Amino acid sequence: MDDMISITVVDRDGSEQQIDVPTDINLSLMELLKASSYDILATCGGMALCATCHVQILAAADSLRSPSDQELDMLDTLPDADDDSRLACQLRLTNDNDGLRLKIKGALQ
Fold first, then answer.
1. Is the pLDDT of residue 44 over 70?
2. CA distances from 81 to 25, 37, 40, 61 (A)
3. What residues does the 2Fe-2S ferredoxin-type domain cover (predicted)?
């Protein structure tokens, strides 16, 4: 299938899972992680206002579009954010993101 990619997700406890992700349904990475039963609060509903969907990109970061100023402003408020940090709610995956590897870092409360 042309509109399916595979990404690797490392959960907070270090467990790692590869998941297949459709790229033709226009969901954010945050919505895809929630649909895959990962515990993501997403308190703001994907508006880049809470950072509870904070992820660290471990591989293939160059395949993602650059973060917006709003995303960067929110990431600046996090004590554990670094240059590899992104908000999953702001990422829409495309076929170019096959092989993406990320770690979930967002808070649980």
1. yes
2. 29, 24, 17, 15
3. 5-108
